[in-house]
């Protein structure tokens, strides 16, 4: 057979170069280091023992390696683990020197010196009438308390009044008064500080001053543009979201665009890539281009603030750009693993940050999947530019989507199209915005000119985000690990369907369209069933529901069924939209009564939504009228009677009856009550709903719970208990022992920094044998059936309202 004879069916196929083997040695070491960092930062007290064991094992393995020439991979893993644990021990000992954690346990007050390590972020007011606050990270350098001064190097989280602290910036040296408190285990901060008066601020000069000047120049360059542009462009360029409109931020979060305003690897890739391209145009050689890129990356880190997240993004962004530019993407795996390992040794607490997880996954997707997928699309006939515009966000979404489900239990099918649509605008906005930033100190007018086209790009991104957010394509998935599994399966099915479709178009074959159809139908079935996993078997609400706890975030709203389309509402939560939606889902057209247990915002803030479009018989309130909340309730009630309730009274509405067990009538005479006194003025009801007894406790603290226990009807039991104060630790176990509930309902936000529900409270409930329903994990929860045959159901968290519920959980 001649050399040019066409090959027959049995002829050997041409053999190309052998595939490059995937090198996972460093990846295994990085994963082991990650696990060790996660465990050691959660239990730093025992990290020293782990370090000793790891070091001893490493010595043994190295000895075996030298003698037999085996065990190199195990030695690499043990070395990485030992380095990470050593870093935890070293840094934790430095952080906790001078007994700062002991001071925090005693909640010592004093005067502090600190260096700000992260810009302040706004928090809502903790209580009705209180001022808004900010939270920021600092490094405490000294504390003057109890007659002595201690030198420190302790990372801390500071909560402070917004009015006085809003202008504090990264790098500032502060002196302030405050009170120490313990931090949660595993946090980077070893203590918290409730800050008081800010006594002095020393703003740094030099490089940091130049950085702040540049950031301020960009804000001024867009000062005349619409609010979306003023807030979004600084976020795109340097991660400055101080002026980002809250509704735009929520829209971007719901459609997966928040990564654009966080300083991420994509920012650094764009900046460095543009610098390399400019240096290439200028005729620079390879080494010179690398020097330009390195200098630009360092400058960008300083401009965007060298916080841990920015440093992480710089490393990962540089790796991502290098990996995408490489001819063989598999070579990027050891590079990404090496970068992750270096970062974990330098800062082991990154192992507990979702941002770090997503950065590593996105970078891995970029170097491993984006190029092959783009090449596959090109072979299928797509233009190269379109292929890469699709492959990059799809690869990132495929790898990061399951992890994002832990943060927000939902998947939005418009996320990838939204990212594709905004992709052409991100680069110009970032590069032109950065040029305007650099130009602003010397030529403000020129910076404004450059900011105009960058602003057009930002406006396009904002428009896409707002329009996409209004499309009802967000699908709820189960919270926790179940949601991760659902999103991972959905991703595999969709990608498999796309691959089958491409294979069918590339070559004939009947099985490929059939396979694509099966995979699409499987994905549709998964989407349909996922929101119900762990929830009711039938439609919501169950037809025989009696009591429903509405998922209103960190607040109370409990619905007692009083008729076919009527109810008694006990508290209205913090948000009118959330409580209105819950009542709508239950088909409640009339409220026979509304009981507002006390006048804190998380119980009365949503009253307008509860009353909207519904007939209301009466509004009952606590006898302790706290202004201005009480006046607002009276105004919203309009012509509806507003009647206080106090201990000893009985009453009812529709098919619901009740006995009032608290508070005593004399609480009405309390003047200037503090928060605990307002909680202890809560109306406590023992209600009867079609034969099912329900104890509703408001936010009663220990004092009122003891008073309720003293008034407890002899021999009475409560089938259902609404746990007091969102499951806080201020419980009286004897009250729950007397009530002997079968079901305990905890109204609590999935996002809250109060620590609710407390472990001690859950232990108390476990001792009663009650089944615990929680709105933070179950969404709307229901008790249905009859007194003889109670059953419990949950609707599952509604991901579409996650942002609204999360607004009220900061303490």
Automatic annotation (TrEMBL):
Q: Would I find Transmembrane helix among this entry's keywords?
A: yes
Where is each Metallo-beta-lactamase domain found? 554-754
Location within or outside the cell: Cell membrane
Tell me how this protein sits in the membrane. Answer: Multi-pass membrane protein
TM helices/strands, residue ranges: 46-66, 73-93, 262-281, 288-304, 333-350, 356-374, 386-408, 420-440, 447-469, 481-502
Alphabetically sorted, this entry's keywords are: Cell membrane, Membrane, Transmembrane, Transmembrane helix
SUPFAM superfamilies with a match to the protein in the record: Metallo-hydrolase/oxidoreductase (SSF56281)
| Name of one Pfam family that matches | Lactamase_B
Checking PANTHER family in the record gives: DNA INTERNALIZATION/COMPETENCE PROTEIN COMEC/REC2 (PTHR30619), RECOMBINATION PROTEIN 2 (PTHR30619:SF1)
Name of the molecule in the record: ComEC/Rec2 family competence protein
Give the species this sequence originates from: Kineococcus halophytocola
Highest lineage ranks of the organism?
Bacteria, Bacillati, Actinomycetota, Actinomycetes, Kineosporiales
């Amino acid at each position: 057979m001649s050399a040019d004879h066409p090959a027959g069916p049995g002829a050997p196929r041409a053999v190309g170069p052998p595939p490059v083997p995937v090198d996972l040695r460093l990846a295994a070491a990085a994963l082991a280091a990650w696990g060790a960092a996660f465990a050691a930062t959660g239990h730093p007290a025992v990290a020293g023992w782990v370090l000793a064991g790891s070091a001893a094992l490493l010595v043994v393995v190295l000895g075996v390696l030298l003698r037999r020439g085996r065990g190199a991979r195990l030695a690499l893993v043990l070395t990485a683990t030992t380095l990470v644990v050593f870093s935890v021990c070293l840094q934790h000992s430095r952080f906790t020197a001078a007994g700062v954690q002991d001071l925090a346990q005693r909640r010592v007050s004093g005067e502090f010196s600190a260096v700000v390590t992260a810009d302040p972020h706004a928090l809502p007011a903790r209580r009705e009438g209180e001022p808004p606050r900010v939270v920021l990270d600092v490094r405490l350098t000294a504390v003057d308390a109890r007659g002595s001064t201690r030198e420190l190097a302790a990372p801390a989280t500071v909560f402070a009044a917004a009015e006085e602290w809003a202008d504090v910036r990264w790098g500032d040296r502060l002196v302030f008064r405050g009170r120490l408190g313990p931090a949660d285990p595993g946090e980077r901060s070893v203590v918290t500080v409730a800050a008081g008066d800010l006594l002095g601020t020393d703003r740094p000069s030099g490089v940091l001053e130049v950085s702040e000047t540049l950031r301020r120049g960009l804000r001024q360059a867009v000062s005349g543009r619409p609010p979306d542009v003023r807030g979004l462009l600084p976020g795109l360029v340097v991660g400055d979201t101080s002026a980002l409109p809250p509704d735009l931020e929520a829209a971007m979060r719901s459609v997966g665009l928040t990564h654009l305003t966080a300083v991420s690897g994509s920012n650094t890739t764009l900046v460095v890539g543009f610098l390399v391209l400019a240096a290439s145009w200028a005729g620079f050689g390879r080494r010179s281009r690398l020097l330009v890129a390195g200098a630009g990356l360092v400058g960008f880190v300083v401009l965007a603030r060298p916080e841990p997240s920015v440093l992480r993004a710089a490393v990962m962004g540089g790796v991502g750009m290098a990996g995408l530019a490489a001819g063989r993407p598999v070579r990027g795996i050891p590079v990404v693993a090496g970068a992750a390992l270096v970062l974990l040794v330098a800062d082991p607490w990154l192992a507990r940050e979702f941002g770090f997880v997503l950065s590593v996954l996105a970078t891995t997707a970029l170097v491993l999947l984006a190029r092959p997928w783009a090449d596959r699309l090109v072979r299928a006939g797509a233009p190269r530019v379109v292929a890469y515009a699709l492959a990059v966000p799809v690869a990132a979404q495929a790898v990061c989507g399951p992890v994002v489900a832990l943060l927000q239990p939902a998947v939005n099918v418009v996320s990838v199209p939204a990212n594709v649509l905004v992709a052409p605008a991100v680069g110009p906005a970032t590069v032109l915005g950065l040029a305007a930033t650099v130009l602003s100190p010397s030529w403000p007018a020129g910076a404004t000119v450059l900011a105009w086209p960058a602003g057009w790009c930002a406006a396009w991104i904002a428009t896409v985000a707002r329009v996409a957010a209004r499309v009802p394509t967000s699908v709820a998935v189960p919270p926790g690990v179940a949601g991760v599994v659902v999103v991972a399966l959905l991703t595999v099915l969709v990608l498999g369907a796309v691959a089958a479709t491409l294979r069918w178009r590339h070559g004939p074959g009947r099985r490929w369209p059939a396979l694509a159809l099966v995979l699409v139908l499987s994905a549709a079935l998964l989407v349909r069933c996922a929101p119900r996993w762990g929830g009711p078997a039938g439609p919501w609400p169950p037809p025989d529901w009696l009591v429903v706890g509405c998922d209103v975030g960190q607040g109370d709203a409990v619905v007692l069924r009083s008729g076919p389309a009527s109810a008694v509402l006990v508290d209205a939560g913090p948000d009118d939209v959330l409580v209105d939606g819950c009542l709508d889902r239950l088909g409640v057209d009339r409220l026979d009564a509304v009981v507002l247990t006390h006048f804190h915002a998380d119980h009365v803030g949503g009253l307008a939504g509860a009353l909207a479009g519904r007939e209301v018989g009466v509004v009952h309130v606590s006898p302790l009228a706290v202004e201005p909340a009480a006046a607002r309730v009276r105004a919203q009630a309009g012509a509806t009677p507003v009647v206080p309730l106090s201990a000893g009274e009985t009453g009812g509405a529709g098919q619901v009856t009740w006995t009032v067990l608290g508070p005593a009538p004399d609480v009405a005479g309390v003047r200037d009550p503090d928060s605990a006194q307002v909680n202890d003025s809560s109306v406590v009801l023992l209600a009867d709903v079609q034969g099912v007894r329900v104890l509703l406790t408001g936010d009663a603290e220990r004092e009122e719970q003891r008073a309720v226990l003293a008034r407890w009807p002899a021999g009475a039991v409560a089938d259902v208990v609404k746990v007091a104060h969102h499951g806080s630790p201020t419980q009286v176990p004897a009250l729950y022992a007397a009530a002997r509930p079968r079901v305990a309902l905890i109204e609590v936000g999935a996002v809250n920094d109060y620590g609710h529900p407390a472990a001690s409270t859950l232990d108390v409930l476990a001792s009663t044998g009650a089944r615990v329903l929680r709105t933070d994990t179950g969404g709307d929860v229901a008790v249905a059936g009859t007194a003889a045959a109670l059953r419990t159901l949950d609707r599952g968290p509604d991901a579409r309202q996650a942002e609204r519920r999360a607004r009220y959980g900061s303490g």
